[in-house]
């Protein structure tokens, strides 16, 4: 048939297959090369020719035949053969790439998962190696060697944090880098390739973590819909875990943050765990010292009292972890208020969820160091708190929550109205003094005594509140008392 019609490629392809199965590899190779000479995009001919070369362990020829065909078609057979060839040529970086594509196209290929696990293990990617071996095991590949390698991956995961090479770069031109830089292995499954970075940089830390199997994704939105609430809701779209830890950009969680806080979620009713804020710039200025004392009172007294007495408490928007099911059950992150954290907290607790506050576990953060930044922060908190009060108070009062929770929620959500009372008091102060003066009342009267009594009690009340918080948190609490007047 081929001799009568040499242009019919299907005849040549079938003839080449017959030659190959008959053990006549050279004749099969001749027919396949003739097909590719006429049609360079004939993928089936290329794959069959690569199989002929692979049988002879001619791995370079396999790569030379198949890599040009990737521009015509992407399929499992091509990637599998290329991965095997690159692996035998000790080009594990390319082999890893091709095996990863192969298992995407054929996720039930146990042999490819096993080979991919070997490459990950050789590259010290222990988490990825363990995952690949587990998949191979689930697909029916079971042997003492596989289980030994899986155990090795688990063992190394226990105390491995990535080993990298250090190079010292000397500055030459003005725009060159210098100092100690770390050469980093390309990150599997990522488009970005981190070649080198200083040890303290985020690039270096992310590369080491991602190379060890941690699924890290940086999400950039091209709009600001919903602001922080919108960003949190957008992040939930790709978050695959059952729990979501949230940190603002100026927070520095400790390495053991999750280890110390996650066990509280064994209670199925717990929706969130909040840690106490610590302040890394507490001693920078009088402004930061006053803010630190103020927030210490909120966390050490208010939060503890509310949480331990069964009243409603609010998530502080950061330095805590949420159960994703609770977020969904409460209606998700909503952006009709500026304090989406407080809004979600009350909605979740009205649905029966519980909070846990950990005063002994701290998460360091930076306080606003300038008055303009502090005022902007307080404006957001005040406006957001008022919006949340208008939105949630009717629901709370009509709910089946305990009376003590309703009373405290009312006082909590309306606390920002004190600013209005201060303005009203200021406006009424002069008329009150004028009326007293015109009435001819003796200045040293029971009225002045009453005024001073109320003033003294209010001063003592606020002072005891903040002194108690410092006493609770610090051994040297007396040293901060001198800053109370600035608060």
Automatic annotation (TrEMBL):
<dbReference type="Pfam" id="PF13641">
    <property type="entry name" value="Glyco_tranf_2_3"/>
</dbReference>
<dbReference type="InterPro" id="IPR029044">
    <property type="entry name" value="Nucleotide-diphossugar_trans"/>
</dbReference>
<dbReference type="InterPro" id="IPR011990">
    <property type="entry name" value="TPR-like_helical_dom_sf"/>
</dbReference>
<protein>
    <recommendedName>
        <fullName>Glycosyltransferase 2-like domain-containing protein</fullName>
    </recommendedName>
</protein>
<dbReference type="Pfam" id="PF14559">
    <property type="entry name" value="TPR_19"/>
</dbReference>
<keyword id="KW-0808">Transferase</keyword>
<dbReference type="GO" id="GO:0012505">
    <property type="term" value="C:endomembrane system"/>
</dbReference>
<dbReference type="InterPro" id="IPR019734">
    <property type="entry name" value="TPR_rpt"/>
</dbReference>
<keyword id="KW-0472">Membrane</keyword>
<feature type="transmembrane region" description="Helical">
    <location>
        <begin position="444"/>
        <end position="468"/>
    </location>
</feature>
<dbReference type="GO" id="GO:0016757">
    <property type="term" value="F:glycosyltransferase activity"/>
</dbReference>
<dbReference type="Pfam" id="PF13432">
    <property type="entry name" value="TPR_16"/>
</dbReference>
<feature type="transmembrane region" description="Helical">
    <location>
        <begin position="409"/>
        <end position="432"/>
    </location>
</feature>
<keyword id="KW-0812">Transmembrane</keyword>
<keyword id="KW-1133">Transmembrane helix</keyword>
């Amino acid at each position: 048939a081929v001799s009568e019609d040499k242009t019919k490629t299907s005849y040549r392809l079938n003839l080449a297959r017959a030659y190959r199965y008959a053990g006549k590899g050279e004749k099969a190779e001749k027919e396949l090369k003739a097909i590719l000479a006429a049609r360079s995009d004939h993928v089936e001919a290329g794959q069959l020719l690569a199989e002929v070369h692979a049988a002879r362990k001619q791995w370079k020829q396999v790569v030379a035949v198949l890599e040009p065909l990737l521009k015509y078609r992407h399929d499992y057979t091509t990637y599998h053969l290329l991965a095997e060839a690159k692996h035998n040529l000790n080009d594990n970086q390319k082999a890893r790439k091709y095996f990863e594509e192969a298992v995407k196209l054929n996720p039930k290929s146990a042999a490819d998962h096993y080979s991919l696990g070997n490459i990950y293990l050789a590259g010290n990617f222990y988490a990825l190696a363990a995952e690949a071996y587990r998949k191979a095991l689930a697909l029916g590949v079971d042997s003492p060697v596989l289980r030994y390698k899986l155990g090795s991956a688990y063992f190394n995961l226990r105390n491995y944090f990535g080993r990298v090479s250090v190079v010292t770069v000397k500055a030459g031109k003005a725009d060159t880098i210098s100092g100690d830089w770390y050469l980093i292995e390309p990150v599997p499954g990522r488009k970005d390739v981190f070649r080198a970075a200083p040890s303290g940089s985020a690039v270096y830390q992310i590369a080491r973590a991602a190379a060890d199997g941690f699924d890290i994704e940086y999400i950039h939105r091209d709009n600001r819909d919903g602001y922080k609430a919108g960003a949190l809701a957008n992040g939930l779209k790709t978050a695959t875990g059952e729990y979501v830890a949230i940190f603002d950009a100026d927070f520095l969680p400790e390495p053991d943050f999750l280890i110390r806080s996650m066990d509280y979620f064994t209670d199925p009713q717990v929706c969130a765990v909040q840690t106490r804020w610590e302040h890394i710039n507490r001693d920078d200025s009088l402004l930061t010292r006053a803010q630190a004392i103020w927030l210490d009172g909120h966390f050490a007294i208010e939060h503890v009292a509310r949480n331990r007495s069964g009243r409603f408490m609010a998530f502080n928007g950061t330095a805590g972890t949420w159960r994703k099911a609770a977020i969904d059950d409460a209606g998700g992150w909503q952006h009709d208020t500026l304090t989406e954290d407080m809004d979600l907290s009350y909605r979740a607790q009205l649905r029966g969820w519980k909070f846990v506050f950990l005063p002994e576990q701290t998460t360091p953060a930076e306080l606003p160091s300038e008055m303009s930044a502090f005022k902007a922060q307080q404006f957001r908190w005040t406006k957001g708190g008022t919006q949340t009060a208008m939105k949630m108070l009717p629901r709370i009062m009509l709910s089946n929550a305990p009376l003590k929770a309703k009373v405290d929620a009312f006082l909590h959500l309306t606390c920002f109205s004190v600013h209005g009372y201060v303005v009203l008091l200021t406006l009424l102060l002069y008329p009150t003094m004028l009326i007293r003066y015109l009435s001819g009342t003796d200045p040293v009267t029971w009225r002045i005594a009453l005024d001073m009594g109320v003033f003294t009690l209010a001063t003592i009340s606020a002072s005891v509140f903040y002194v108690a918080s410092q006493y609770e948190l610090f051994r040297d609490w007396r040293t901060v008392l001198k800053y109370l007047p600035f608060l």
